[in-house]
Design brief:
Keywords: Membrane, Transmembrane, Transmembrane helix. The chain is an all-alpha fold. The protein has one domain. It is built from 6 helices and no strands. The two termini are 17 Å apart. The model has no long low-confidence stretch (mean pLDDT 92).
């Protein structure tokens, strides 16, 4: 396996759909939500935080608004990161009303990271993969008692 192929495989393995799914599941079950809150929030957040951003991305990719899966052209990232910020804000509002304070604070932090990524992208090209991975690793370790610090070893490969 060539180094380039290995890098692409690692990039896909630690891409948004994987991290969003893992973070959603870990956060739902490790923030002290009741079973009733989980039953309500899980499908709503699955649609808002995972399915809709992926659907928007696929549509943009298919209609040519995004030239490749890595969105290597900075100007093509505006819509994607803008929508991701909007989806993150919407889920944070939903969590404020239907979740608990702890989950809300984590969601608000996620929104701030997403919105900051969007704002930075307006001026500079920044690695969305790096932001997603570092944020995901921090949140997982925070929620699970810092048992998985070894996950930081993947960051240089992304």
């Amino acid at each position: 396996m060539s180094l380039e192929l290995f890098a692409k495989a690692i990039s896909r393995l630690f891409d948004f759909p994987i991290w969003a799914t893992v973070l959603l599941v870990v956060a739902l079950f490790n923030t002290g939500l009741s079973a009733g809150q989980i039953k309500i929030l899980a499908p709503v957040l699955l649609v808002v935080d995972l399915i809709s951003p992926i659907a928007i991305f696929v549509l943009l990719l298919r209609n040519g608004a995004v030239s490749d899966i890595d969105v290597t052209i900075r100007s093509q990232r505006y819509r994607i990161f803008g929508y991701a910020s909007l989806a993150s804000l919407l889920s944070t509002i939903v969590i404020y009303f239907l979740g608990n304070y702890y989950f809300f604070v984590l969601s608000a932090a996620g929104f701030l990271v997403t919105f900051t990524l969007f704002l930075i992208t307006l001026k500079w090209k920044i690695s969305g993969h790096m932001i997603i991975n570092c944020t995901g690793i921090f949140i997982i370790n925070h929620l699970l008692g810092w048992q998985y610090t070894w996950l930081f070893l993947i960051v240089p490969f992304v």
